[in-house]
Amino acid sequence: MFSKDATWLRTARIAVPLGVAALVLTGCSGGGAAGGDGTSSSNVAAVIKGLDNPFFQYMETGIKDTAKSDDVSVQVQAAADIGDTTGQADKLTALVGQDFGCYIVNPISGTNLVQALSQVSTAGKTIVNIDQPIDADAAKTANLDIATYIGTDNEAAGGKAGDFVLDQIEPGSEVAIIGGIAGDVTSAARIDGFKAAVGSDVDVIQETAADWKREMALTQATDIIAANPNVKAFFAANDDMGLGIVKAVENAGKTGEITVVSVDGNEDALESVKAGGLSATVAQYPFAVGQLGVQACEVATSGGDLPKNIESPTALVTSAEADQALDAFPQPFAPFENPLEDLLKK
User: 240 and 211 in contact (C-beta within 8 Å)?
Assistant: First the structure.
């Protein structure tokens, strides 16, 4: 599913146009670019969340494909799973003393990579934070110098889901919300955006957490449907949980009767939207997030100034857009302005 022609990297609006990459590096995984001592501070290390979730598989592919296209040397490490906070921190710690000039980090929590990153920052190396924001207070305490944050406006994504639900159900209908890990900033932002959009027009009968996991969401949704036979819609903070809810709805014999909307836009979620399982997904583009992370490192290591925040694109995908989204996957199916494009040309 990741074998699409990488030439779009040179032609889409998000991509680096051919011949204008800011750096000309050699290698693709580990070794250094050419230098007087055989090493270079221009190499990139990336530490991301667990590859047990397709979202982060696509992010990894965006990082690697962009690095290959732009001749950037990159090494990617991932947590064992989406809850492996200690293991992820250990992987970053192992990379800190190596020859990397830029670190792309996608922390599992707002704080689990802070201690390791303090060494990166002290060494004067670039930190590019993607997807999951590092806790601002923890970063300040550790004196972290974070060059830029690249990610989704999660409240806006949740808001798009809420607007969709309002269009699908009657006012006053019962709605349930299933979030990720309790206390997670990303999950909370999506839920806040959803709740702000639906306001008092629906009755939120239950809000629970399923740790981003499909099977846990299936169990939670099964219990919610059994206890609340009039529930008309579910919002899930990610696609994996959304697909678990879809299975619970199917098991209850209520497919088509209960609206289910989630956030991510993973390929299996898009297929489910097309098939009439998920009602909609708010597509993020983890491939684009990974790509922007590499491009940010290119700008930084060539001496450019990065914006403090770079918003990655989102789009609501219903059955009307599913084919278009699948045809373009994993890239965005609608163009968007890449703020790094001009910086890469300098």
Answer: no
Cα 38 to chain centroid distance, Å, stands at: 34
Q: What is the DSSP string of 190-206?
A: HHHHHHHHHTTSSEEEE
Instruction: List pLDDT tens digits, range 100-140.
Output: 999 999 999 999 999 999 999 999 999 999 999 999 999 99
Residue 214 sits in a domain of what CATH number? 3.40.50.2300
Query: What are the angstrom distances between the C-alpha of 149 and each of 130, 308, 324?
Result: 6, 6, 29
Which tokens in the block code for residue 258? 């209960």
pLDDT tens-place string over residues 212-250: 999 999 999 999 999 999 999 999 999 999 999 999 999
- How many domains does the chain contain in total? 2
Count the Cβ atoms, other than its own, within 10 Å of residue 87.
Answer: 16
Residue 272 makes CB contacts below 8 A (sequence gap 6+) with: 242, 243, 246, 278
Distance, in Å, from the CA atom of 248 to the CA atom of 243, rounded to the nearest integer, reads: 9
Residue 338 lies in a domain: no
